[in-house]
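Give me structure tokens for this 169-residue protein.
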Amino acid sequence: MGLREVKNELNKLDKADLIKHISELYKKYKPVKEYFDFYINPDEKKLLEQYKEKVTEGFFPKRGYQLKLSISRKAINDFKKLGTSAESLADLLLHFVENGVEFTNEYGDIDENFYTSVENTYSSALDLIDNNGLLDKFKKRAYEIVTDTDGIGWGFHDSLGDLYYHHYE
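Here you go.
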């Protein structure tokens, strides 16, 4: 079944039935609840802080010590789906990178896949920042990420530096 068929069926329902179905979705599915909560009360700053905590949880879990980048990446993808501003998304992407750098500085060299993931996120963040005219707003933070990687292996520092200077110089 496709979206067209779903829309046709929904058009057949009266308002009360639509409200009933949406209410059921709201109760059963957390992403639907988050979507409607943000739609009805769009407090982007609060939402950003909640998602920053989720990103951090993937790097520095409250329980245990295992790195789980999938948790952090899922948080970013879920945040994107809510239709937040480019500025908030860039902030969250840089937060991911900052956590990756902090994790490496705390625990030592990781593996190539880890660094590639962090580099790709940094690249995406800088592209988003550049494309939305936000370079001045994030310049200091983007630079600090590069300086905090000095001495990290796998060409990580050089890659982030190249990305930074591509956008800022």
